[in-house]
Structures are given as C-alpha cells and as structure tokens.
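**Protein record**
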Amino acid sequence: KIMADEWYYVDEETTEQVGPTPIPELRALFKKKAIDDDTFFWKDGQAEWLALADIPQLKAKLKPPAPPPTPAKKPPVPARPPVPPKPVAPPSSPQIQAIRRRSMSGRSMARASAQTNWVEKLTVDGARYYYNPSTESVAWDKPDILKSQAELEKDSGEWVWVSDPETVWVPARVLSRSGASASVQLQSGQRREIDTSNAKKEPMWPLLLSSLRHIEDDLVMMDDLNQGLLMHAVAERYKQDEIYTWVGANHSVLVSVNPFKTLPIYTVSSMEEHSKPSPNKPPPPHTFAIANSSYMKMKLSLKNQSILISGESGAGKTEATKQCLAFLAEVAGSENNVEQKILNANPVLEAFGNAKTLRNNNSSRFGRWMEIHFEERGSICGCRIENYLLEKARVSFQTSGERNYHIFYQLCFSGVGTRFGVTSPSEYRYLNQSGCETVRGIDDTADFNDVCLALSQLGFVEEELDELFGLICAVLHLGNITFKSDGDQGSVVEGSAALQEAAKQLKIDPKTLGTVLCERSIEVRGEKNRILHKPVEALEAADSLAKAVYGNMFDWLVKRINSSVEGKKGLFIGILDIFGFEIFKKNSFEQLCINFTNEKLQQHFNTNTFKEEESVYVSEGIKFTKVPFIDNQPVLDLIEKKPVGLLVLLDEEIRLPKGSDAKWLEKCDNNHGAHPCWLSDKSARMKLDKSNFTVRHYAGDVEYDSTSFYDKNKDALFRDLYDAMTLSGNKIAKEIFPPKDKNPRKIVSISGQFRTQLIELMKIVNETAPHYIRCVKPNDEKRPNTFDTKMSLEQLTYAGVFEAVKIRKSGYPFRLLHRAFVARYRCLAKGRTQIPVRGGDDRETAKKIMGCLPQDFTEVQIGNTMVLYRAEEHRILELLRNLALEIIVPVAQRGSRRGLGKKYLRKLREAKKFLKEAYDKGNDAAALDRAISKTNELLGPMRKLFEHEPKELSMCKELRHKLQERVELTKIMSGLVGKDPMSVYPELGCAIVRANKIKDIPGTAAEMEVESKCRDMLKSCAGPRIDPLAEEALWLLKREAMVDVLAQADEVGYISSDIDEIRAKLALGEEAFVKLQLKKANELNDPDRVINREIRLKELYLDAYGSMFTFDKFSLLRDPDEWASMKLFGFAFNKDQIAASFLYHTGSPIHASLTKLESPLSKEAVKMFKNIMGYMGDRKYPYPDTLAQEVIACGLANEPLRAELYCQVMKQLQENPSFASESKGWELMSLFLSCFPPPPSVENVISMFLREHCEEDKREKYTQSLHMIIYGGARRKAMSMSEIPHTVANFFDKPITERYMAEDFVGVATRFGGEGDGGPETVVGVGGNVDGGRVGGAAAKKPSPPPKAGGGAKPAPPPKPGKGGAGAVPGRPPPPPPPPPAVTSVPMATTLFDYLPGSQPGMLNLKKAETVVVLNSEDSEWWLVQKNGEEGWVPAAYMKLNN
C-alpha cells in the first residue's frame, strides 16, 4: 500500500520506475541533483505522470518555497487530454530525450508520456489490437512505443510498390531519388534503379509496411487502394488456404480463388457456422456466406435474389454453384425432399454438359440459370433450370489433350455401353481423336454409378434410361460411319456395321439413314431436286446429325429434370453459372457469343456496383465525388444494336441465298469502320488474305476468326435428316425432333435464339437483388499452392473488382439504417450519455452516440435514412464495441441463463411431483408409463439446455425396466423348466444373471416358483461345467479366469478341491500371486495366446448371451419416446413415427444424439450425423471425403463421442433401402475400425451388430478389425484426405495377425495336451460380465505405439501400457508381470522372452536368453538397453536383472 507522503519517480539514467520513496529520501536525492524539475513523479490518486515543476506541493517539501526558475522560451501549455486513474508505465528514455530536445515543458512531457500507456488486447475472434486507456484511443497497428528496436529499424524509411516482371508489384525501400530515377532496395536485399519518368508505368505507390502484415478478409478494409497491396492481400490469403475474400462491407461481392485441392471447409460444421453466425464473430468469407446472405435477405425483404458466378474456365464456377446449392438445401430443407432432387440434378448435368479441357478437368460447356423457389416459411418448394449455348461442336471434335462429354466415357468404362453396342473409347472417332481417354482424378465408372443413382432419384424409369443411353451411344456410332465415292458425284456408306448400329439405337430404318446421309433434296418452285453428297459432305452430314441429336437430347434432359423438381412458384434465389470471358489463340463464333454474354453481365455489375452506389448517396443527401469507370455500352451496341450490330448482320446474312462469312465481314467493315470498339483493318486483312477482325471488349482486345461464323450461326440440319429423325421409334428422339412446318425458308439462327434467351435472363436478373462470386484461376497448370500474380491480376481486372474496390473505398462502403446503427453501437454510449431505451428519434440518437465518443468521427455521414462511414471509422467503432461488449455480454448471459433456469426449475418441480406419485404406487406399469411420457413432453427440448434430470425419473425408468424384465424372464424360464439342464446350461446361466439384477422386485408366487426351479437346475449341472474351467484356470494362473470360475461356483454353491485351491491363491497378497504368475509364464513362454483367448472368450460369451447385446438394448441409448420429444418443432401426431425411426435408417437429420450425451457433445453429434449422411449419399453435400475426414477427426479427438458415432453408422445401416448408401455405410464402418476403437460399453453391441448385419463373406474381416483396433488403440494422427480412399480400397487386403483370428492360437502345449489344440471348450458361466463391456475377465487396454527416436538422440520412453493383458507395443502380446526387483551393481539383464518389434523406430529386437546392458531402468514399464552397441527400448516385463 502506498502511503500519502510516498512517491514514485523515473530514474532518467536507467528510465526505470523507482519507489515508493518517502519525502526524506527524495529531499536527499534532490539535494544531490539526482532528481530535478524535469523528473517525472506519480503517487496514488494522481491522474498521470507529472514533472516535478508541475507539482508545487511536492517541490515545496523538497526545497524551501521559492518560485521555480522559468525556462527562457516556454511554450503555452495546451489542455490536458483525458487520463486514466493510474498510468501503467513511465515514459521511455528516448521519448524523454526527444521531448527535451524540443525544449518542451514538464507538463508537455507528461502529456506525451500518456502516449506510452498502450495495452495489447484481443477481439472475440482472436485478432490483436491496441488500446490506450489514457486517451481511449484504439488501433490495429502496434504503437511505436511498444515496438522493439529491430521493429523500429525495419519499419523506418520510405516504402513504395515497384514493378516486377514475375510478381507484377513488390515492396521496396527508397534509398535515394534523383530526377527521373530512384534507387530502391527490395525486401530480399536486392537493389534496383527505377525509372520514374512514366508515372503510369511506375506509379511508386506509397506503402505503410505494417499494411503487409494486416491482411483483411475484405479488400475495401485494406489500408490503401492500389494493385500492389490488393494483390498482396489476395495472394497471402491464398497461401493460408483462405481462398475467399470480400469486396465491400455489404458482402455482396466475393472473390474466390481456385485452390486446386479439396479443403475441409465445406462440411456440415462449416454450414452451421455460416447459417447461425455469432453476433460478435462474423463468419469468414465463403460461398456459404453469400448463399446465407441471399437466403436471409430474401426472407427479410421478400425480394428475389440472385447469385451471379463468373470466371474463366477452371476458375471454380461449377464448384461454387454446387456449394451454394448444398448450403441452401441444408439450411432451408423442404417438406417433400425436393432439395435432394435439386442436388441430384448436379451430377447428371455435369455428366452430360461437362468435359475435360486444357484449362479444366471438369469444365462446364454450357451456361445454366437455376431458380430455387421457396415457400413463405422459407423451405424449398421447387426449382427451374434454364440452359444456354451448349458447345455442340465438342461432340464431333476435340483439341489434342481434351475430352468429349463425360457421359460417353462413363458408358464405355462402366460396361453399360455394351448393351448398346459401345465398347472402348479408342474404337470411336468422336473419342479417340484427341489422344485423351482417361483423366487423373476422375473415376468414370464411379461417377456413372452416381449419375444412375441421381437419375433414379429424379424419377427416371428404366425405359427412359435405356432410350437415353441408346441415343448417346447412337451418337458414337454415327461418328464411326465412313463414306467412299460412288464413282460419280455422290458417295455411299463404306461398311455397314456402324450404320446398322446407329440406326438400331436411333430406331430408324438403316437404308433410310444411309440415304439421307449421302444425299439431300431441295424444293424449288414446288419441285424437289436431289443433291448428292461427296464423301466429305456426307461425313459432315453425319457430324451435323450427331450434334443435333446430342444438343436436342440435352435440352430434353433439362426439361425432364425440371418436371421432377418443379413445384409451386414463390420467392426465389437464382444461381447463374455461365462461361467466363474467353481469349484464345483462335477465337470463333462461340467465343463472340460467350464474350457478349460477359459484356452483358459486366454491364449489370457496373450498374449495381457503381451507378446504384451513387444513387444511394444522392437519396441520402450525401456529397460524393464520382469515380469514373469503364462503361461498356459501346461494345454492346456494336454487337447487338439493330440494324447493323455484328450478330444482327450475321442473322440477316444466313437468310440470303448466297450468304457467306466474307460478305458478312465486309458489311461489318462498311458499317463499323469508325467505331472505337471495331479494330479491324480491312486493307491489311485483304493483303494477308485473312478473315480476322478484332473487338475491343471491357476485358481487352480479342481477335476473332470469322471462318464458319455463317455455318455455325445457321446450324441447320438438312431437312431430310430432320424428317428421318421424326420417324424414330425412340420416344425421346421423337420428342426432340417434332415434325416441322412446310416452310423451308424459315430459319432460326443460333445467335438469335441465344440473344432472346439472354434478354429474358437479364430481365429476370435485373429484378433481383444480386450477389456476385468472381472466380479466379491462380495458375494454368492446375497446381495447388501456386499463385500466379500476373494471371490473377488480369482476371480481377476483367471482373471489375478493382473498380468496385475503388468506388466503395472512396465512398462510404459501411452503411446502416439509423435504427440498426443505434442498436449495434448504443453500447458505446454507456456511462457517457443517456440513450432512450425505446422511442426517440433514431437519427438524433445516432448523432448523440457519435458526439459522446472521444474519437474523431467527423467523417461519418448521417444521411436521411442511414449512417454512412468508411473503413477507418468502421475499424474504430468495432474495436470500441468490442471493448464495451467485454463488460455487457457476460451480464446479459447471466440474465438469460437465470431466466431459462427458473423456467426449467418450475418444470422440474412439476415433473418430480407426479413421478413420485407414480413410483410410490409400486409395481404399477401403466402409471409409470404415463408419468415418464408426461415428463418427456413437459421437459421436451429444454433438455438440450439443461442436462440435469430429476432422480425420480431415473427411479421410475429403472422400476419400469425391472417390471418388464420380470415379465420377460418368467417367459424365458418357463420354456427352460423341464429340459435337460446340461443342454440348456448357457440359457440357464443367462437367465439367472438377469434374475439376480432384479432381486428387489419380487414377482408373483408362480413367477418365483419358476425362478426357483431354474436355480435348482443350474446347481445340478454346475460341477461338470465348472471343474474343467477350474483346472484350466489353475494351470494358466489367470487371475481373471480364476475369479470368474470362483464367482460361478459361489453362484450355484459348488465346492471342490480346485475351487478351494483357487480361493486360497486369490487370497494371497498381490506380490505372492505375481510371483506365481511369473513362474507359470516362464514355463509356458506364450504371451501371444492371452489376446487370442480373450477374444475367443468374448466370442463364446456372445454365443451364449448375445441377445443381451443387440443394438436396441444398448444401455447408453436414449429412450425412443424421450428422444422423439426432444425434437424442437415435433408435433404430437408424428412423435410416434419419430420414435419408431430411432434406430433405423433415415433420410433426415437427427435432432439430438442417439446416446445420452451432454449438450455440447450432443450438438456435435447432430452435426456429425449430417456428415455421415453426406458420406453415405443419404443427403447431398460437396466433397464426401471431407465429411468422413471430419467425422474421423472428431472421433479421434473426442473419446466420449465414439460410442455415438458407431451407433449413428449402425442406425443408418439398419433397414437401409439403398444398396449404394449401405455400401458407403460399411465403408465408413471400416474407416472407424481403422482409426479409433469403440468404448468398452459398446464393444459387444458392435460385435453382435456385425454378426447380424454384415455379409457373411465380409463378417470375419470386420470382426478381426474390431479386435485389432480394440487392442491396438487409436491412431495418433488424423486421417488425411488421400488416406481415406486408400484405406477403404485396402481394408479387406490388410494383414491380420493370428492372435486376432477366430481359431485358437497356442504357441505351447496346453494343460490338456497337443500343440495349439486349445484345451477343452471354455464356456463362461453365470458370473460373467453382462454390462456391455469386454467379457471373460478384464480385457487388455489399448496400447499406444512407442514414439519414433529422433536422430541419434535416445528416444523418450514409450507411453505406459494399461493394466491388463495387452502389451505395450501395438500388435505385441501383453508382457508377463515384472519379476521381483533385484539389486545388482552391474546393470546387466537377461531376456525372458523373444521380443521382435520388427522395424519400429526406437525399439530393439531381442531373442530369449540374450544378455544386454541396461542404460535406463527408471520407467517401470520400459527399459532402455544396449546390445552390440545398438540401443533401443524393450518391455521391462520381458527382462530380468542379473545378480
């Protein structure tokens, strides 16, 4: 405690705080001039450190009263800032010296010292920031006063961004400037000379070095606006696998960088994190966040939403679409499971519309718009899909290294194609021309199985599938038809096999097909004329027919899917997945259409991001400087504006009798020669005899080759071919080729159809609230962890991201309605000013909040309806709010918990009352049932919040169980009475064990008489059963076996000499008994048999008492009715249905854990069940292996959850109607059995489940794996993504040690003779364990493998094994008990048994009777020994110290 006349001061030589110091000592120091007027002082009650000159009362005590000397030029003293009650630290020496050099007064120095009072703090999400209680300042950047000397030196100097040929922009420190050049030094130490004459090429953007360390998840929040810092942020986040970044505070624009690897961020847990975000910890940027924002805004604003996904091929658009769909399906759900049908449409559309390209192994070759419709309550009620511009040219031709559509290869490799005459891809022209038939990472057979499953779930019947697959195979056969000259002007089919097969699958006449391919007819003035096709023209006709069949079939498929997923119309969220901007070496008609689409989408982006941004400021009455942006209306006019737009002129050209590419291009030149976006040089083109032209798009200049524009736009199938298809017997073909009218001149162009579709799409999109996902492809090699800055910069530029950042950062990106602002930040006014709780003018309240804060918020704009502010103000507000919530949130939580607790307590008291009444009635089963059911309904969902239950409930349940047990036992015992006791000995034992547990519930006289007869029968046959067990137990000296036999004998009152001997040996002390065991172990030298026999005992026990361990009798399971009542929105009419499904396969998530778990674990169990459903295919989630990985990681990390996870898998395997789902369930079981053991409580339940439900040829492997994981223990590391498929594929091939097999494994002669005969059959009697754990004695604990020895250092001792039989090394038998300690002066020991751990690191192979040097015997379980100069660890129980 500081006395009133004691002071602290700062020693100016050491800059250390000294004190408390009494006045006499201070007076002596002042006299010695060790302290003076400029020395800083502080004492309790003083607000801040002050110089002695500013404390006259203290100075008077140290020196006789006299006016202090006045400095020569003392500056005026400014007003003091707010101060804390007590400074944390005195000012530092450098600061004191700096102040003194400026001749500042003591008061000024004291004020400066307050700046040293910074405290480091953490936000709720773990971000570090700094707070100064003296000034109430907050900052993200570390104050200089807290920096080390090294940090100060590193941050010093002028830093800028300079250009770099590899990474585009790099940070550099300016060393010197001279005229139009500058000398800089990069962070690597390299020096460069920079030409600064061209500011556009070398802008030398200034850089605050700390900005490189403060990587925000929102580009608008970055400290500066330039390409260097923004690209640095995206690249650094990518390195940390943070592939998503926001653009703006309203979270409507997301940048997504393709990681080219599977990340564990798409699991059910991640979905829950984004669907139920913490109010104080917003979830990170994610496609789920975009989907959730769309969903919530749709529900709140009752306005349709859209998610527009764009990017070049390989940027991840398809994956982003699937992620958004999966999230909406998970969060919204549906009443008729339609959301699962919508998800099932994905694999189908991908198979038929995606292909491998040079840029992407799963590239969408069509655009799609999906409208997900919702009911008023927010659940999904239907979907509508629209497809755009399928790349039909791919059907007949692919570039080298690319593939045709996936479905062709799936039919070939799955073998289903053989039904339609299709074999290997190498046999077909449409599949073998590119030289690429398989793709690494794509399993066509497995994918085809998924497609077939999805089609069946979408309602496709067998007949439809046959016709659909027949059409696809017909396309391949059409490509194999060859032609030769007929000797004149025409052609004939060469070989009939392909023609016959194509006609067979198309179900048309082969002769008709051959004719329409080799010739066509035209009608002139009502007269038909035949035109013969040359072989090349006939081949082109076959290609045209193949493309027409596939294209029309794809349109039909989309319509057919729509009929399956359609429902009533409502508010919708539209998702657009469409081709990104394309610039290839050769660009054709398709690229022009694609780029035209992107121009339209970019204009929409501009309108919403830029123009509507400005309209907000106008409506709010806020002054705003307009930011110029690229308006792409001129290029849109060039392409589509009537009457001379490029596509309009092309449509006119195909209607002319002699139209051509050259004539169209000439018209374009004539009409657009002066257009700023038309860069074609007609004269130069004619000189070079080229047909190229260039269009200036918003994303850059693109050169197109006009060759085939005319034909591609016309895309007309000869009328004879079309008419032939109308005669097809294939129902799908007949539907996709309906009869045409008789007007041969009616032509519908491809571009015309596409423009019409696009106009309709944009009309819909313009009426929605848009969200954008800008996908970026970080490198061309599709390589993970590789970020090409130049390539990514171009894509972000094309996507308009930098312009969006610019306008949002220069404007006011953060905006809240007055009421929302007050609600969020009213906590900042606590203790500063009075804020009305209800009512009042929200606008004035917002002003009041801003005005009461000590920070400068003059830049915050209070608009007509909103408060608008920039990133800097947002940071400060959020940090201040974080400080306020540190105090407020705990208080609010306490109040909430108190209220809920009181409510639950009232319910508990009510429940206890009627439970006690039912219990006091005694053996009244009906009253107990009513009381238990009423309690379940009363407590219901509140059990998820409070784990406590009235003890009366447990008492009633126990009593009710015993009453039911008495009824069942009487029935069983009645069936045993009168039978030969020896033949029903196991059944008698089981019945008596169960009867012993309910002794306190006597039955009727008749029931007790039946029980007495069974007990007498058991006693009569105990001797023949127990004697062999007793003799064998004495021979092996197994304590567990001896205890078990003695318990059986005592149970039936049996006495013999062997039983007396067992009783005597068990009465010995622990040491004496261990010596006897060691002697016997030396005699037998057979530790392996322990594990084998324990497993055998368990199997025998289950043979006899397996009915006690069926899944439904597992003691840790919740009561089904109680579980059903815990459903939050369950209704009375369906609770019975919910309870009935408790242990059986379901297609819906569970609402609570199956086993009795506390609330946090129960919530985790619910999430894990969704992962299990996702992996099994019962619900559609992206990346199933990541779901399995999360479940396994959860099981490894949370032992209490392991029983629940095993139960969840068993539940989904029971009565599973889907073979595919059941197969995946058994895969998951194999993964569990390869990673973590089940708890002892559920081991027998799993064993019985495997017996009853596993296929006979697989049952043994699963059972052996169960034993291996029980004795071997859990794996130490989580399973990686790559290990999951490998583990599943090799599960049935992994080697099983003999000790885990069903056959008796005996390495020595047993008591009853024979090498490995195993002695007489061992049967467990009535004393066995019946509580669900291991049987036949205390089973061995699961050991952990010894750690690897690092380098030449001695390895750390391996972990100690558990008590019981299993050895300390996985796969080794339990070592025998240690010998009695021997005292010897020589650290030598002899090996008692062979110890052969193989190549395990840190272990040493030893043979029996070898002598070794003991280096370390401190550990009771493991010794470090040396043999022939080699060191290693061996079990201490295998060694004996020499005398």
